[in-house]
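dude i think i finally got it to work??
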Amino acid sequence: MLVPLALPDGLWARPLTPRDAATVTALVAAQELADVGGIGIEEADLVADWQHPGYDVTACSVGVFDGDRLVAYAELGGERAEAAVHPDHRGRGLGTALATWLQELARRHGRTTLRLAMPEGSPGWASGWTGRSGRCASPPGPRCRAAPCPRGTPCARRPRTSTPSAGR
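look at this
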């Protein structure tokens, strides 16, 4: 299921694979450090999420690259979405492009709701996207509220079982 992603010149994208777990962890850690001053993500948690039965990381994720460096990513898992943009690449529209990509992917998987989790006070939080601390805002497209995950879709998976101290 190919979902278009509008990117600034010089950047390219591809689906992520399990081999990308360490790189995604480093990207999210850089974002967490910049946003909340600490790192909560652990690679083992990400790997466990990606290995959940029925979840297909290549069908439900995208990595954005500048050359061979991962600078942003997004993934859909059930009604919850995850995304990160490296602090050095903010202000180029990548967060907006990823949010639009996630909305379209959610629609294609029959979702009517979408929550994007992020640390309170982060640039994404300030823009109105959030699923953290009970605050929920809805840009056009899927509404941000709880809903069951459709069974049998490659992006269906259980909610994260760990709660990183910095939030994601």
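The radius of gyration is 14 Å.
im so relieved honestly
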